[in-house]
From TrEMBL:
It comes from the Bacteria. GO terms for molecular function: transmembrane transporter activity. InterPro entries: DctM, TRAP_DctM. Its main location: membrane. This is TRAP-type C4-dicarboxylate transport system permease large subunit.
Length: 468
């Protein structure tokens, strides 16, 4: 065990990528201790990525990239400005609302930070906000990406923990709302202290227009329900609703109705059983292509090719981490690390609340050093037996783990969101880190609420019959 973990940490310290560090330390452990034939290790490597739920990974990444190149992020930003730009600290509030909407499309914090976050930081700087404030609120709001469905970390966690991905998606909605409210309250406090004003004049017409777009989107599932209640088949009801939606969108030239339909299609489709979470990723890609090529006509074949190549690059890196981490996690199990950790923790406490505090501290630490996907694939096989032993719902634990690791993305030395925002804002990593620190407060408050009030996470999926 010491050889496996020690060599991994040493390779990380000297600067090797996390996937290579895990692969090399795993091979070294197998060679030195002969725990299994080479063919077994190779089979474990392949088995790590040979999973149907993992098909969602490239499609969700592609959907986020397509939304960026199709100009959907700009429309979402305009919608958020119309809705909340008149508030004190308006563009900071816009930043949060924009991230909420975009999180229903991308599924990753990185896509949020690099996509709509780029627009938001520039706009806040142009309106006179300190660049540190722009970076801080963008970093905090980017963590919403993997909490609201769809979520790439939920897909990986669901596969590793053998938990319903649909239940995880639904479980993220209420915590996501709680996080959004806490961030908006934080912005209001900063606006009062720093005397930030509004950034757009109060206009009933703009607010009415934005509210009308939300109302139109909400009317789609209501309309489908009413049509089916009148005796129309479900397929025809959906067709009629979409035709009416398209007609209204073209006639009134709404700025973001079709973009706002993305989370409705994904969540509604999974809820109604039209497609699985994996198939929902394909639906997101098809809807993104429709928006970019047909409705908005902002996507060119050049930009489509670029989005595809970016997806291939990102997917390859993610799956390489998953494959290497699957062998590493298997060796941790073989070396009885899980049992040793279990014995150590149960020796310290028999309270599940103390256990959750200890695990939160562990994951906050690990999240600072490991990629999210690698952390999930390594920690789940070790911690899940303890989670079940303490009678903690694995769906609830999935939310706790994901939020901890999202906070880790904002920290050095390996926080990817930190580095993306540092590059976008042209700030040093040190200044970017200090800019993010105050915005960790609402995230930690949300983490405490989600950890110690399980109903916040479990109420919705329980009501929907996804968990018992």
């Amino acid at each position: 065990m010491l050889v496996l973990i020690g060599s991994f940490l040493l390779l990380m310290i000297i600067g090797l990528p996390v996937a290579i560090s895990m692969a090399v330390s795993s091979v070294l452990y197998i060679v030195l201790y002969g725990v299994a034939p080479d063919i077994i290790a190779a089979q474990r490597l392949i088995a790590g990525v040979e999973s149907f739920p993992l098909l969602a990974v490239p499609f969700f990444i592609l959907a986020g990239n397509l939304m960026n190149v199709a100009g959907v992020t700009g429309r979402i930003y305009s919608f958020a400005v119309a809705l909340v730009g008149w508030m004190k600290g308006g563009l900071a509030q816009v930043n949060i609302i924009g991230s909420v909407v975009f999180s229903g499309m991308s599924g990753t914090a990185l896509a949020d930070a690099a996509g709509i976050g780029t627009i938001e930081i520039k706009a806040m700087k142009d309106h006179g906000y300190p660049v540190e404030a722009a970076v801080g609120v963008t970093a905090a709001s980017a963590t919403l990406g993997p909490i609201f469905p769809p979520s790439l970390p939920f897909v990986i966690y669901g596969m590793m923990a053998n938990v319903s991905i649909g239940a995880l998606f639904m479980a993220g909605i209420v915590p996501g709302v709680v996080m959004t409210v806490l961030m908006m309250v934080t912005v209001a406090i900063f606006a009062y202290i720093k005397r930030w004003g509004s950034d757009t004049p109060f206009s009933l017409r703009m607010i009415f227009g934005a509210s009308l777009e939300v109302l139109v989107v909400m009317m789609v599932p209501i309309g489908i329900y009413l049509l089916t209640a009148m005796g129309l088949s479900l397929n025809y009801a959906i067709l009629v609703a979409l035709i009416v939606l398209l007609a209204c969108d073209w006639y009134f030239d709404f700025s973001a109705v079709m973009a706002l339909m993305t989370p409705v299609i994904l969540i509604g489709g999974m809820t109604m059983g039209w497609f699985t979470p994996t198939e929902a990723a394909v639906a997101a890609v098809l809807w993104s292509l429709f928006l970019g090529l047909v409705r908005y006509r902002t996507m060119t074949f050049r930009s489509l090719a670029k989005a595809t190549m970016d997806t291939i690059e990102t997917t390859a890196s993610v799956l390489f981490i998953v494959a290497a981490a699957s062998v590493f996690a298997w060796l941790l199990t073989v070396s009885q690390t899980a049992q040793l950790l279990s014995t150590a923790i149960t020796g310290l406490t028999d309270s599940k609340w103390v256990f959750l505090i200890l695990v939160n501290l562990l994951m906050l630490f690990v999240g600072c050093f490991l990629d999210t996907i690698a952390a999930i694939t390594i920690l789940v096989p070790i911690l899940l037996p303890l989670v079940l032993q303490f009678d903690i719902d694995p769906v609830h634990f999935g939310l706790i783990m994901t939020l901890n690791l999202m906070i880790g993305l904002l920290h050095p030395p390996l926080g990817m969101v930190l580095f993306v925002l540092s590059r976008v804002a042209k700030l040093s990593v040190e200044r970017t880190t200090m800019a993010i620190v105050p915005w960790l407060v609402p995230l930690f408050v949300a983490l405490i609420i989600i950890t110690f009030i399980p109903a916040v996470t479990l109420w919705l999926p329980t009501e929907m019959g996804l968990i018992r």
